[in-house]
Design goal:
Blueprint (H helix, E strand, L loop, with lengths): L2 E4 L2 E5 L2 H15 L5 E4 L15 E4 L3 H11 L6 E2 L18 E5 L5 H10 L6 E7 H7 L10 H9 E9 L4 E2 L6 E8 L10 H12 L5 H4 L24 H16 L1
Parallel strand pairs: 3-4, 3-6, 4-5, 6-7
Antiparallel strand pairs: 1-2, 2-9, 7-10, 8-10
Helix pairs in contact: 3-5, 5-6, 6-8
């Protein structure tokens, strides 16, 4: 994607070295997963490094579609003029897995990550540019001020790292925030309880009122209220690691089914 879309406008990526560094990371992943879906290519500053028969792009702006067609002569099947958040990803690449990549619109970046989690069976890898604070929140650990539900839910299924940070000078016009490129790799082994809808409910409910103890926030999810006296319910959500949230969900599920 070529722009960081903010509520106050679009910021076009102009630093070619950033595109080259992202492309280098993609090339390594393409040895395992040859298909690439780029979200929001805009004018194609990153797209030109990704062009091959295994590339599809999703762009909501019809003006950008015309630019992409003119620049790269992409076939119609390779350009999808839709809102990514509303797009059914299952038919893409005939059901084969793909790398998700983009300089994602910052105002919907969390929604994009949640969608990726929903389609995790199709997306073994993701590389994306995010607002720096948001990228670090995704990978935050317990005890951090920015640790939240998205941190836990993402890390239940993916392992990630920050590849590099990007300053405002890489864009035109420069945004008022710093950016970071994050890479995610789907875990080979996932705790089965993480696939249970209860896990997501426990995590999101816990952080709904993050300053309260779990005995108060999770009360609606617990049938046997005596369970709320256990030590784990005396904690606040930001102090629980992923493994502790897994333990907590198992405990609630077992007691509710008893």
């Amino acid at each position: 994607m070529v722009y960081a879309k903010k509520q106050y406008g679009q910021h076009f990526l102009t630093d070619e070295s950033v595109c080259e560094r992202i492309t280098d990371a993609v090339k390594i992943l393409k040895n395992e997963t040859p298909n690439v879906l780029e979200v929001g290519p805009g004018q194609g500053v990153l797209t030109k490094y990704l062009i091959d028969k295994n590339l599809n792009v999703v762009e909501i702006d019809p003006r950008m579609i015309d630019i992409l067609q003119t620049k790269f002569n992409l076939k119609n099947r390779a350009i999808i003029n839709q809102d990514f958040l509303k797009l059914n990803l299952n038919p893409l690449f005939d059901g084969a897995p793909f790398i998700l990549i983009g300089n994602y619109p910052y105002n919907i970046s969390s929604q994009i990550v949640f969608k990726m989690i929903d389609y995790r069976s199709r997306i073994p890898h993701m590389i994306g540019m995010f607002q720096k604070e948001v990228a670090y929140r995704f990978l935050a650990k317990e005890g951090s001020k920015v640790y939240g539900s998205i941190s836990v839910l993402l890390q239940a299924f993916y392992e990630g790292e920050i590849l590099f940070d990007i300053g405002p000078e890489a864009f035109n016009p420069p945004p008022k925030v710093n950016s970071a490129v994050m890479q995610l790799r789907r875990k080979d082994l996932v705790e089965p309880i993480c696939e249970d809808p209860l896990f997501k409910s426990v995590v999101k409910t816990s952080f709904g009122q993050r300053r309260k103890m779990l005995r108060n926030t999770l009360k609606p999810l617990v049938k046997n209220k005596n369970l709320l006296t256990k030590d784990i319910f005396m904690q606040r959500p930001e102090h629980l690691s992923l493994s502790r949230f897994i333990e907590l969900t198992k405990l609630i599920k077992e007691e509710n089914n008893a």
